[in-house]
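Possible regression after last week's pipeline update?

I re-ran a chain I had predicted before the update to compare outputs. Posting the input and the new output here so someone can diff against the archived version. Not blocking, just want to make sure nothing changed silently.
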Amino acid sequence: MKKTAPNSLKLTREQLITIFWWLVFFVLTGWNVWLLWPNITLPIILVMFVFGWLNIRKDKFSSYILNAKNDRMYHFLPEYSETTFKDVFGLDNYKRELTDIIDYLKNPSKYNKQGLSIPVKILFSGPHGTGKTLMVYAVAGEAKVPLYKMKAVEIVQLFDESGVAGIRNLFQQVKANAPAILFIYDLDRIEKLFGEGSSKDKNIRAIKQFFFEIEGLEKQYDIVFFAAVSNPDLFDSKLFVSSYFDRQIRMRLPIRSEREKILEQQKQTMKLSNDVDLALISRSTTGFSGEDLTKLCQKAKLNANHAGYESLRMIDFEEALEQIVFGSGHNAIMSDHDQFVVACHEAGHGMIAWLSPYADLVQKISIFPDELSMVCPDVYYSISSSNLSREYLLANLRVMLGGRAAEELLIGDVTTGSEGDLLAATRLAKYMNTRWGMGGLGLMAIPTEKESNMMGSDIYSIYPCSEETVALLDRSVQQLLNEQYDVVKELLKKSLEPLTTLVETLQRDEILDYEDLMEIIGPKVYGEG
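New output (post-update):
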């Protein structure tokens, strides 16, 4: 966001009084006295003028320094975006989620009169380059409203320069130009940046003031606040929680068809040879974001230019892909073998969830690491959970083990991709034994003195019981895991044909929804109750 310097300071009351008395002095002494001896009076007047000017500048400078924290209020200049949804290829689901926001910004009075509630605090999350900023610009362009955009580091700088009043001033200016959008990106860095400051209490006060102003937007019906973070799970802390926002939109990497649309868009700025196959390029760039694809096209242009060709050839794209993957350390792209392994793993999760009567309903399966739809949330097994049946827990345990079992069955080997699943399954099996009386320890519950993390830096807990009981617990946990793993393998063997089809389809389409699963596997199996 652009900002202009504060207005120059005006003369103070004391300075005006000083000038007034000098004028009175000139009048009382008489102009004839000053005109009779010009060789004396002119130097005196010059010296008086110089000292007076220096005194005024000194007062201005002192006032500027002493009151910088309170009086230096910047004027923030909004942007007026010309980007619209026509400039955003793919991401159709996210566009639909934002249509009501656009209508709200266009017609705030309609919502005010009808008393309609609309989300005004929206959190975008997702990997770098997935279009979070582009979507905000598109919303501003569609609604034709001013856009105030700031980085997290600029919020910190604003507080350092102007204190809490500076943050308050920012929101006052946004509200004065309503309807408008305020967009803060890299918001997950703001707490860390404030932590690098001087006083902890002072920094917490600044953060609370910032969110207090955002909370006030609910009363200002024509302001929408957008924030962008890379990972909402890492965003949660004592000061911030992602649930604070009215709506969360998790941006994913583009699938193959969307990547091809993005390349078609880039085609308008390129002259291509007949051998260029955009569909093949889209298949070879699994894991690329829209920004990555733009970089790919730019590098291909440079390669063609260096080779002396006006038209881009397929080899230019192939060399550009190698430069990005191997030259710059880009590790998001998947080889064909990697896609097959991940597809087997995720298909195993999805198949077991579909065939287990008491497992949660599967809405989507994806090969992308940011679309972990089959990982069971750790919160399900926290101490606050209640009324979870043993059948439900066993079903979820089987779902966790489904990925590894599918690897073993279809690949003939296992990979490290099951690490998170095994840690979560082990923790759940321990809870079933030590907290809920669902294992080999009978009805005895054992409280833990040390909690372990799902991705656990330390998976072992300290139990206040005998070594024999701990050994029995270990055997009971291992037995429970082995029994459920055998069940999973039998289920997959009996459904080998649909499992294979599921893997092939997942490799081709990269994301499958509920209707796709219905077509491949058949109706979902449900339990009683």
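Follow-up from reviewer: compared with the archived run. DSSP finds 21 helices and nine strands in the chain. Marking as no regression found.
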